[in-house]
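Revision sheet: C-alpha cells.
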Amino acid sequence: MKRRFFSTIGLIVIVSLGFSVSSCNRDNNEADAYGNFEAIETIISAESNGKLLYFGIDEGQSLTADSTIGMIDTMQLHYQKEQILSKKDVIQSKFANIIAQVNVVEEQITTLEKEKARVENLLKSGAATQKQLDDINGHINILNKQMLTIKTQNASIFAELESVESSIALIDDQISRAVIINPVKGIVLEKYVQQFEIVNAGKPLYKLADLSEIILRAYVSGDQLDDFKIGQKVNVYIDADKDSNHEYEGEIVWVSSEAEFTPKIIQTKKERVNLVYAVKIKVKNDGKIKIGMPGEVRI
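Predicted:
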C-alpha cells in the first residue's frame, strides 16, 4: 500500500511539473502587443454637378492610379461654352474695327508729318507762312488725341476679351472635372452611388484603400515603450486556425506620444493597465490580412 501511495504521489508531482513547464512555455510565447489591422482609406468625391452617365466600378475591384472610371454629363457646360465663344467672336470683330481705325489715323499722321517737313523747308526760304505750319501741327495734335481715344477703347476691349478667355478656361476646367479619374491604386471598399444618379460637387462616390501594405495599430503599456522604436523590425502574427498562425515581418512606423485608455476590443500583455500607447506597424500584405482583423506583435 505504501509503495502504491508513493507512486501515486510521484505521478502527481511529475504531472504537476509538466503542467508548470507547459505554462511557462506558453507565457514565453505570449505576444508583446495586440491590435487590429487598418488601412489608409481614401474617399473619392465628385468634382462636378450632373447625371452620372457612366460609373464602371464594383466593390472589391482593384483600380490603378490615373484610370478613368466614370463620366458626369457635361451637355449644359458645352452649351455655356458655345454662348461664350459667340461673345468672343463679337469682341474680336470690334477689335478688328479698332485696328482698322488705328491704321487709318496712323497713315494720316504719317502724311501730315511729311507735309510738315516740307512746309518747314519752305518756311525757311520764305515760300510758306507760319500759319500753314501751325495748321499742320494742329491737325497732327487732333489726330494724336483721336489715336489716344481709340487706344483707350482698345484697352477696354482687351479687358473684355481677357474676361471671356477666363470664362472659357473655367468651363474647360469644369468639363475636365466631369471625367472621374481614380487618383490612387487600391481596392474599392464601398460604392456610394450608382450609374445615372444625379451627383453634386463634393458628393462621395466611392472609398478605396491600398491593401498591398496594411497597418497594425497595436497598444503597449508605458513600461514597454522602450522596446518599441520607429524603424524597428518586429514579428506580426494573425490566426491561421485555432492551433497555428501566419507570420509576417513588420516595421514600426509610428509611436504615439500620448497615452490613452485601453480600447475595449484590445487585450494587453499586462493586466490592470489603465493607460496604453498606440503604435503603428506596417506589414506587407499577401492578401490574407483584412481590415479589422486582429493581430499580435512579438519583438
